[in-house]
Specification:
Blueprint: E1 2-7, H1 14-25, E2 29-31, H2 32-41, H3 45-56, H4 62-73, E3 81-85, H5 91-103, E4 111-115, H6 118-126, E5 128-131, E6 137-139, E7 158-159, H7 166-180, H8 182-190, E8 193-197, H9 202-213
Parallel strand pairs: 1-3, 1-4, 2-3, 4-8
Antiparallel strand pairs: 5-6, 5-7
Helix pairs in contact: 1-9, 2-3, 4-5, 6-7
The structure holds BIS(adenosine)-5'-pentaphosphate and magnesium ion (MG).
Length: about 220
């Protein structure tokens, strides 16, 4: 049983570590960014609304996110816990999540905060390539796929996210610092946050996360 949240700026490695964490702890990976991108791909009303904000690098308004996330937490596969990636992202979202968990007799275990400095974030994000089929992330320099443009895991085609431009990254980092970073304090007050140096190699970061979450 593990109920946890990954905090950290865009490009810190949340999605990359999430894949490894959910495999080890056998819990679902819930990424609100992925849910929005799926809606954009399928042309839903929600996708159309979210896309306007996402492409500029701005946060989607709280009212479009909160029910979406908490409804997902009601699904059967969350009974043994969950990993939230990209939610909550504002203090208001965190308060609403706390209310939801309390109403269901649950609480969060350790919250993981992955920190990386801005220069490195920009390099990571502009070099990121994501698999269209399975969602795995690669990086043209740091974590190159064996064959250019092709996913190592499933053979799918790699693409660049619409918000992985230099301009949108500036806004995303600014949004993080202004609206999401205060959550580190919020969870510090609750006494359950561990900050991890996300600039370390991928496997070292994962080992630190496992140390924080417990075997
Ligand atoms: P979201 O999809 O959550 O994106 P993000 O927070 O901007 O984070 P990223 O996915 O860009 O980074 P990551 O930390 O997952 O890094 P990754 O592992 O890929 O959100 C997108 C948008 O949706 C938001 O801007 C907002 O508009 C909206 N949204 C979503 N949720 C919302 C919410 N709750 N409220 C409001 N709006 C919301 O790694 C990045 C790169 O680095 C990769 O290339 C990877 O290969 C490489 N890398 C990873 N780890 C390492 C390492 N240790 N060393 C070297 N390279 C590494
Ligand atoms: Mg991600």
């Amino acid at each position: 049983m593990l109920r946890t949240v990954l905090l950290g700026p865009p490009g810190a490695g949340k999605g990359t570590q999430a894949v490894k964490i959910v495999e080890k702890y056998n819990i679902p990976h819930i990424s609100t960014g992925d849910i929005f991108r799926e809606n954009i791909k399928n042309g839903t009303e929600l996708g159309k609304k979210a896309q306007e904000y996402m492409n500029k690098g701005e946060l989607v308004p709280d009212e479009l996110v909160i029910d979406l996330a908490t409804d997902r937490l009601l699904a059967d596969d969350c009974r043994n816990g969950f990993l939230l990636d990209g939610f909550p992202r504002t203090v208001y979202q965190a308060e609403k999540l706390d209310e939801f968990l309390e109403a269901h007799g649950q609480k969060l275990d350790t919250v993981i905060d992955i920190e990386v400095e801005k220069e490195e974030l920009v390099t990571r994000i502009t070099g990121r390539r994501v698999c269209k089929a399975c969602g795995a992330s690669f990086h043209v320099v740091n974590i190159p796929p064996k064959k250019e443009g092709i996913c190592d895991l499933c053979g799918g085609e790699l693409f660049q996210r619409a918000d992985d431009t230099v301009d949108a990254v500036e806004t995303r980092v600014a949004e993080y610092n202004e609206k999401t970073k205060p959550l580190v304090d919020y969870y510090t007050k609750a006494g359950n946050v561990v900050t991890i140096d996300g600039a370390l190699p991928l496997d070292t970061v994962f080992a630190e996360i496992v140390k924080a979450l417990g075997e």
